[in-house]
Amino acid sequence: MADDRDIREVRLEAADEEAEWIRRTQRGDRAAFGLLVERYQRRIFALVFRLVRRRDEVEDLAQDIFVKAFQGIATYSFQSSFLAWLSRIAVNHCYDFLRRQAMARVRYFWQMTQEGQRALEARLEGLNVDALTAEEKLALGDLVDKLMSRASAEDRMILALKELDGRSIEEIAQLLSLKESTVKVRLHRARKRMLEDWKRWQRSR
């Protein structure tokens, strides 16, 4: 019981500390915002990577997200957690980025060059999902990256938040400002389109 009480007290102290940092930032204190960045930087970096799947873009995107957060923090009303508020900014920024990139990318897996198809097929040859080796897991991860990178921005956001970031339907609905029923429908359709994309590539071999 004493340990539980100590943990609760620590959490309350951390929450009070964070609330003070936020209020100071809302008054223009950049040093206080730096403390918020330090606390949440790793989580935002991880979220951005799961959404865009491009390590070379993560740092710049995360920096833009924190700039947006600083510029808009006056609107933060303490109705949700600061991390939830910050995550919504991150999701919206990454969604805009993916939409801008869509026209410059090969959009679907089956549209890869023949060389790319053969190379991926060779890496996946003999995969046994029930008994994957470390090397096979890397190959499977590579396939996921390729499929995700060619999905539409809308599908990618839903799939990344659910399948890669492990968010619940309720959390995704809050992040994307959608009804839970809408998230379920979009998730079902995104999964179906990705499966069709994979099958189309198999038939084209």
Written description of the protein model:
About 75% of the residues lie in helices and about 0% in strands. It contains nine helices and no strands. It has two domains: about 100 residues, Rna Polymerase Sigma Factor, Chain: A; about 100 residues, Orthogonal Bundle (Arc Repressor Mutant, subunit A), CATH 1.10.10. The longest helix has 25 residues. It is mostly helical and about 200 residues long. Helix 2 packs across helix 7.
Classified by CATH, the class of the largest domain is: Mainly Alpha
Percentage of residues in strands: under 5%
Radius of gyration: 20 Å
Q: Number of helix segments?
A: 9
Helix content class: over 70%
Number of strands: 0
> Quick one: biggest sheet?
none
The structural class is mainly alpha
Total domain count: 2
Beginning-to-end CA distance, first to last residue: 62 Å
CATH architecture descriptor name of the largest domain = Orthogonal Bundle
Q: Briefly note the CATH topology name of the largest domain.
A: Rna Polymerase Sigma Factor, Chain: A
Series of secondary-structure elements, N-terminal to C-terminal: HHHHHHHHH
Q: Report the average pLDDT across residues.
A: 78
Envelope shape: elongated
